Amino acid sequence: MDEKYSIAVAQSGGPTAAINASLAGVFRRAALCPEIDKIYGSINGIEGMINDVLVPLDIILTSENDIELLKMTPSTVLGSCRYKLSEYAQSENDYIHIINTLKAHNIKMFFYIGGNDSMDTVLKLDKYCKALGEDIKIIGIPKTIDNDLPVTDHTPGFGSAAKYVAATMQEIIRDSRVYSIQSITIVEIMGRDTGWLTASTCVLRANGEPAPHLVYLPEAFRDGFNMENFLSDVEKMMKRYRAVIIAVSEGIVPSDHDYVKTGADAFGHTDNSGVGKYLEKACSKRFGCKVRSVELNVMQRCSSHIASLTDISEAEKIGSAAVDCALEGNSGRMMCYRRISSEPYRIEITSCDVAESANKVKYFPESWITPNLCGVAMDAVNYFLPLIQGEPQVIYRNGIPVHFRINT
């Protein structure tokens, strides 16, 4: 690659508070490379590459202030998608369009920021380019609030989501304790297949908070969620606490889960939200006290006003490291965090074969789940705490956080 060339970056899957920091990291590092001519952003993930809908980031991001504001802007400024590429042996149509876009703009490096499904796209596209003999570097940059990507110690976006969830849980606890009557509050937290985010509520114990009193993760119930056992757990806590607080993952699916939506996305993922309301009805029927459920829903994904500085800083660094990885001649890699120690907290950024992560799930360790299946061990607290440290400087205008926007 002696001659000048361009690069492209895209974002995919669910938004987070840190995904734009990774985009900023890619941009900042690439802008320092004299061999890189133009830096493109692909609108709506891989769909932008298929349809040749690109924007010139080096014209849009014109100052350090722009980049800093981009870092602190939640969600995906380039838009997102949940588009599944077929195997190219079955259909080359999408791949041909992508290659045409790459060649039309002289793009020699493509960076895809996303989760499990996005790494599937990186894997397939890298295989196709190699099969054609095309010298195009394809690199995956991890992102998901679910923290369920294998190999990497944690994922960009998770720390900020965990911080928001824990802070919101603490506020719910304060609210629930103001009355003298018995009450039950069930907080439903995202996590389609895994309980990492729900488990992160345990960090409140570091400040002496006993709640949430019960924590339910999908990993504890591979053989099925027993409603009678759940109600028995709640009853025991009601004898100890006037206001019982319960954290439950949306991935907890009781056998008669008629609330689960029947449709699925391109990757076969169903919408499991609704378990909180389901358990609320069961508790209300059994105990007859004040019961409410709170579904945090999309708020937990993009709450940059209470983001983790550690998360934002690491997200930018891993984006920058992805450019270095490609410059070193690598392709078909996913960037990773490797934890060196928790006290003091130290990590290094490495990469792995994307095949080790694509379409695979990293589950919350069963050894960190208490024997009664409704709590988590201190090992989890020690793992989570470093990830939520620090508060970024948020820029406000008229009392509202300012966000960077791209008009497309």
Structural write-up:
- The protein is of the alpha/beta class.
- The protein folds into two domains: 5-144 and 304-360 and 390-401, Rossmann fold, CATH 3.40.50.450; 158-300, Rossmann fold (3-Layer(aba) Sandwich), CATH 3.40.50.
- It is 33% helix and 19% strand.
- The chain has twelve helices and 13 strands.
- The chain has helices at 19-31, 46-51, 57-60, 64-71, 93-104, 116-132, 158-176, 196-199, 227-238, 275-287, 309-327, 378-384, and strands at 5-11, 36-42, 54-56, 107-114, 137-142, 183-189, 214-216, 243-249, 290-295, 333-342, 345-353, 396-397, 400-401.
- The strands form three sheets. A seven-stranded mixed sheet has the order 3-2-1-4-5-10-11, sandwiched between helices.
- The longest helix has 19 residues, at 158-176.
Write down the oligomeric state: single chain
Give, in order, the helices and strands.
EHEHEHHHEHEHEHEHEHEHEEHEE
Mean pLDDT: 94
Task: Give helix % range.
Answer: 25-40%
| CATH architecture level-2 label of the largest domain | 3-Layer(aba) Sandwich
Radius of gyration using CA atoms only: 22 Å
> Number of folding domains?
2
